[in-house]
Amino acid sequence: MSAVEEKLAELGLTLPEVAAPLASYVPAVRTGSYVYTAGQLPMVEGKLGVTGKVGAEVTPEEAKELARTCALNALAAVKSVVVDLDKIVRVVKVVGFVASAPDFTGQPGVINGASELLGEVLGAKGVHARSAVGVAVLPLDAPVEIEFQVEVAD
């Protein structure tokens, strides 16, 4: 078990199986020293537990937890191409999409769920640039979607 996975275990978390793509793409691609993940939904065992818009059917607090789940799924996608998460040099960029009610403006707080998880698990390697974007709808009516760009060692 990698040190990253040991840290996840200390936090009471386990790395899930890589979520199956919903269309014609792969969960992650490595090019050179970088891994780019596809957008990861808050899937648990192949299903969305919560759907709807943040600020309407989904509370910001629920959405923040869902962003943590997305981040775990993105880490699983990274692992699928590098095998050992200890190869992560740093998380370079996180992009978070929040399906938002028309008057909801708390997207950064929602995406903090992913950012905080990365800090807890990776420490300084988890500090990243980020975008948090409100959108009208996401695939499967998911409330949140996260993607990563990660630098890895050979």
Please characterize this protein's 3D structure.
- This protein is of the alpha+beta class and 154 residues long.
- Helices cover 31% and strands 26% of the residues.
- It is built from three helices and seven strands.
- It has helices at 3-10, 60-82, 107-122, and strands spanning 28-31, 34-37, 43-44, 47-48, 88-99, 129-135, 144-152.
- The chain has a five-stranded mixed beta sheet, with helices on one face. A two-stranded antiparallel ribbon has the order 3-4.
- α2 (60-82) packs across α3 (107-122).
- The protein is globular, with a radius of gyration of 14 Å.
- The two termini are 18 Å apart.
Tell me the layout of helices and strands:
Layout: H1 3-10, E1 28-31, E2 34-37, E3 43-44, E4 47-48, H2 60-82, E5 88-99, H3 107-122, E6 129-135, E7 144-152
Parallel strand pairs: 5-6
Antiparallel strand pairs: 1-2, 2-7, 3-4, 5-7
